[in-house]
UniProtKB/TrEMBL annotation:
<comment type="function">
    <text>Cell wall formation. Adds enolpyruvyl to UDP-N-acetylglucosamine.</text>
</comment>
<dbReference type="GO" id="GO:0005737">
    <property type="term" value="C:cytoplasm"/>
</dbReference>
<dbReference type="Pfam" id="PF00275">
    <property type="entry name" value="EPSP_synthase"/>
</dbReference>
<dbReference type="GO" id="GO:0008360">
    <property type="term" value="P:regulation of cell shape"/>
</dbReference>
<dbReference type="InterPro" id="IPR036968">
    <property type="entry name" value="Enolpyruvate_Tfrase_sf"/>
</dbReference>
<keyword id="KW-0808">Transferase</keyword>
<feature type="binding site">
    <location>
        <begin position="22"/>
        <end position="23"/>
    </location>
    <ligand>
        <name>phosphoenolpyruvate</name>
    </ligand>
</feature>
<feature type="binding site">
    <location>
        <position position="306"/>
    </location>
    <ligand>
        <name>UDP-N-acetyl-alpha-D-glucosamine</name>
    </ligand>
</feature>
<feature type="active site" description="Proton donor">
    <location>
        <position position="118"/>
    </location>
</feature>
<dbReference type="GO" id="GO:0051301">
    <property type="term" value="P:cell division"/>
</dbReference>
<feature type="binding site">
    <location>
        <position position="94"/>
    </location>
    <ligand>
        <name>UDP-N-acetyl-alpha-D-glucosamine</name>
    </ligand>
</feature>
<keyword id="KW-0131">Cell cycle</keyword>
<keyword id="KW-0963">Cytoplasm</keyword>
<keyword id="KW-0670">Pyruvate</keyword>
<comment type="similarity">
    <text>Belongs to the EPSP synthase family. MurA subfamily.</text>
</comment>
<dbReference type="GO" id="GO:0009252">
    <property type="term" value="P:peptidoglycan biosynthetic process"/>
</dbReference>
<feature type="domain" description="Enolpyruvate transferase">
    <location>
        <begin position="7"/>
        <end position="407"/>
    </location>
</feature>
Length: 419
């Protein structure tokens, strides 16, 4: 077990490079199953979640070569034979369920246990299953296992009752090799879905409507292996933006798609943070006095739920009252109790948190309860008086590449120690 020890109060300076998006890379790695050929993922973020999904593919028979120095992963899925995956691997990470679509598409059947992942809500898979059934598959749920089988997938029109990111991706991947045309209505529009569609199209798929809520997929006979570099991680970029805001610093962030991060920039601008974009670079200035704001998490292009906890750390130190309403996950306020240990004044009222900003947080012993909650605690620690010790940092390692090195490079006093 490891923990972070962070000494608060530093002013940040210099620049930070953003890695490729975890949430883009996971479905792309799952999609390599579809071609049964060799694919190369360039500038791949070396993260725990990436190792879990590559372990899933390996356990099925794929050959995987991870080059950590070049940040490149070569995946050869031609040898995949197994139609069942160990439940331990799938329970470790919800993203593993993204192999279901590609597996039934290529092999006609797959069995796995119900997925795990961050403990932020019930996280059902009904919309994924609705999509598979609409494409003609039979779905059986038995003793915690999901078994999907079909002799042939046939294109269909599917309306998603909620624009689920994972369901949109899984259905899209199961439809690319189906016979005929599939239309996904009320599809999620997150940039990572666009990136997966772009990856599939470069492999030979025919997907249109990318970036809209209606995706049209015309089935093709087969797909080819390719080399691909995924998009930058908008959530990592947003986390560093808040690092600048919470420490009243000016830093440079390299590797930003301005369009993808628009909702976060809009809210931070409303608070008084300064932005200067130049291509994929950003100079962010958090030195102004900041104003409280209200935020509601929404599907893209709304404010991302994955930035909610980090925003709460910032608002905890901005004088005045702010309200954050979480509409995506019902249990995503676990960081509140930890922030309160650091002196934050936050009250939860149903799906909303009312934050009365205070002048200064105090360093404390806290626990990362999930990935983004962990990021929120790091941010709070940057502002806090004295030292903060953050436990259970394996959650943070799931989604932030070498976060302590990136923070040290911009002047943060942070150490990773065994505990
Ligand atoms: C993805 C992201 C996660 C992000 C989330 C929302 C990945 C690997 N993870 O998770 O970081 O927080 O999008 O932006 O990309 N739902 C159903 N039925 C379903 C599926 C989902 O009711 O079949 C509900 C969920 O309970 C939740 C909401 O839809 O309330 C959003 O979930 P979803 O968009 O599916 O999130 P994930 O794909 O799991």
């Amino acid at each position: 077990m490891e923990k972070f020890i962070i000494k608060g109060g530093s002013t940040l300076r210099g620049e930070v490079n953003i890695s490729a998006a975890k949430n883009a890379v996971l479905p792309i790695i799952a999609a390599t199953i579809l071609c049964g050929d060799k694919c190369i993922i360039k500038n791949c973020p070396m993260l725990l979640d990436v190792y879990v999904i590559t372990d899933v593919l390996k356990s099925l028979g794929a050959k995987i070569n991870i080059n950590k120095i070049n940040r490149e992963i070569a995946i050869d899925t031609s040898g995949i034979i197994d139609s069942e995956v160990s439940s331990d691997l799938v329970r470790k990470m919800r993203g593993s369920f993204l192999i279901m679509g590609p597996m039934i598409s290529r092999f006609g059947k797959f069995k796995t246990s119900f997925p795990g992942g961050c403990n932020i809500g019930t996280r059902p898979i009904d919309l994924h299953l609705k999509g598979f059934k609409a494409l003609g598959a039979e779905v059986k749920l038995n003793h915690g296992y999901v078994e999907v089988s079909t002799t042939k997938l046939i294109g269909s029109k599917i309306y998603l009752d909620f624009p689920s990111v994972g369901a949109t991706e899984n259905i899209m991947m199961s439809a690319v090799l189906a016979e005929g045309e599939t239309i996904i209505e009320n599809a999620a529009e997150e940039p990572e879905i666009g990136d997966l569609a772009e990856f599939l199209n470069q492999m030979g798929a025919k997907i249109t409507g990318i970036g809209t809520d209606t995706l049209k997929i015309v089935g093709v006979k087969n797909l080819n292996g390719i080399s691909y570099e995924p998009i930058y991680d908008r959530i990592e970029a947003g986390t560093f933006m808040i690092a600048a805001g919470i420490t009243k610093s000016k830093i440079k962030i390299n590797g930003i798609n301005k369009e993808h991060i628009r909702p976060v920039v809009a809210k931070l601008t409303e608070m008084g943070i300064g932005f200067e974009f130049k291509g994929q670079e950003l100079l962010i200035d958090g030195r102004n006095d900041l104003k409280p704001i209200d935020i509601k998490t929404m599907p893209y292009p709304g404010f991302p739920t994955d930035m909610q906890s980090q925003m709460m750390s910032l608002l905890s130190c901005v004088c005045g009252t702010s309200v954050i309403t979480e509409t995506i996950f019902e249990n995503r306020f676990m960081h509140v109790i930890e922030l309160k240990r650091m002196g934050a004044n936050i009250k939860i009222d149903g799906r909303s948190a009312v934050i009365e900003g205070i002048n200064k947080l105090n360093g404390a012993e806290v626990k990362a309860t999930d990935l983004r909650a962990g990021a929120a605690l790091i941010l709070a620690a940057l502002e806090a008086d004295g030292e903060t010790e953050i436990y259970d940092i394996h959650h943070i390692d799931r989604g932030y590449v070498e976060i302590e090195n990136k923070l040290q490079d911009i002047g943060v006093k942070i150490q990773r120690v065994k505990c």
